[in-house]
Structure formats: C-alpha cells, structure tokens
Amino acid sequence: MTDVVREPPKRRLPKWFRRPLGGGEEYSRVAGLVDGLDLHTVCQSARCPNRGECWDIGTATFMILGEVCTRGCRYCAVSKGKPLALDLDEPRRVAEAVVKLDLRHVVITSVDRDDLPDGGAAVWAETIDRVRADAPGCAVEVLIPDFRNTTEGALEMVLAAKPDILNHNIETVPRLFPVARKGGDYQVSLGVLQRARELAPDVPTKSGMMVGLGETDPEILQVLTDLRAVGVELVTIGQYLAPEKSAFYLPVDRYVTPDEFKGWTRTCRELGFRHGECGPLVRSSYHAEKQAAGRRPSELRDADQPQTSNGA
Q: Which residues contact residue 254 at a Cβ distance below 8 angstroms, ignoring those fewer than 6 apart?
C-alpha cells in the first residue's frame, strides 16, 4: 500500500484579522483618483490589509519613485527588480491628489532606488515642496528608505524640504536582518534615525517593526530601547503577514495576540515614547494623524483644525 503524503494544514488567520473589504462610493472615488493620476500606493503594492477601511474614508498612502524596488526584502509584497526611468511629473500629481482628497495629514513613502546616485532624494524633496505649495495646511509625514547605497547628502536633501515627521522603519530585530531585509543593515537604519535628529532636531522621528517573524520578546525590547536611544518619539508595532504562500516570502512564525500588543503599548509608554501604536493590523501609516497627535499639542500643524489622514 502506497503511503499518502499529506500537506500540513494551512495556518488560519485568527478572527481579529477580519477587515472590511471596501468598495463603497468613497472607495471608488479614491481608486479612480489614484488610477486617473497614474499614482502608486503602498496600499495596493504592499497588499495592505487596511486598504478597504482607509479607502472607504477617502485616504491612501502614496508611494513615489515608481513601483519596482531594487531591494529583495522577504516580507514585502512590492515588486522587485530593475525600475523604470524616473517620472519627474510624479511630485505634481501626488500634490494634486492630496488637494483633491482634502487631506490634513499625508504619508508618503517610496521604493528603494539603489540605482540612482541620490537614491531618489531629489524627487523626495520635490514631492514635499509641491505638497507644501499646493496644500499648505497639510502636514507631511515621510517614510523614507535608508539611502544606504547613495552619495552623501541624500538625507540632508529630504530634511531640507522640512517634512513634519520623518519615519524610517527598523522592521525587525538585528538577528533577522540577514534573512528578512536583503540589502538592509540594522545599524545603518539606526544611524539614519540618529542622523535625522542631529540634522533637524525639531522634526520628530518615527519607526516601526513587525512581529511574528521568529523574534523573541527580549529582542523586541532591545529594538525599542535602541530606538529611544537615538531619539525616536513615535513607534508602531504590527503583525507580519506573508504576502502569499511562496518559498521566497518568510512564513509567519506565530500570531501575536491583541493582549500581547497591549503589553507592548504599555512598554512603549514606559520607555518614554511619545506615542506607541501597537496592534495586529497596525502599519506605519495606519491612522497616522492619530499617531502624530501623541506629540505635544504645540507641535501639531493646525492643531485646532480637524484632520483627515491617509493611513494604509
């Protein structure tokens, strides 16, 4: 009798991952605007689980410098390979989208562009400048790459455009960098955040990480301690979800419970972060304006006005 080889049962998502799919009138408006302006969003490219919720309230997180990344991170759904030529009209169209969505707080991110001498820093600066000019009441939060393989001055160029918040995600613990973040370096990422504080002490820094990749609690605590040591004020922690079943993407090691995330929120507060946003579906730009509100009121741009944010 031939032995039957059975595949291990698929790991089911816990019930707390159920999210609205979206598809209402506002969702369609955002989708039409993104398509009509030929823009990219991390909501789509990174397959964010919060897209339905965020697009239903008229928000999106813009991704500049194209949609193909030069890095090979094994947790990220963004396409990888050789990027196309720069789209120099992209900053104008991002600003137009911010105006049409009437955003009060926008998050802009990008792919890594190691093929460019400045890593795309000039386009970053132009995008911030255009949003400032066309939507002067909108706070600008930037989620930048590490500019590791670029000429000096890339970070300086971005900060010279005066973003309201500078975010660079640490993503995972040092031990897992070699397998998860191809092309990245833990100390380089910490250095970006430290250097940003030195260059622009008035610009709050922010970082985020995933859990469920096989890290331990002491390792998470050490990352949080390291982030505070370089002056990071805002931090996010969310559950890693594999983009798809593939030998390339790292598998989920475990699902961290909501109660554990609450514990990390308390830890962030105890360590002195101005705000810690921790939860299974938390992502860097999810409800970013609420995260920013963890800062002192005097630091908020137009704090007396209601704010609507993009937040995938």
A: 212
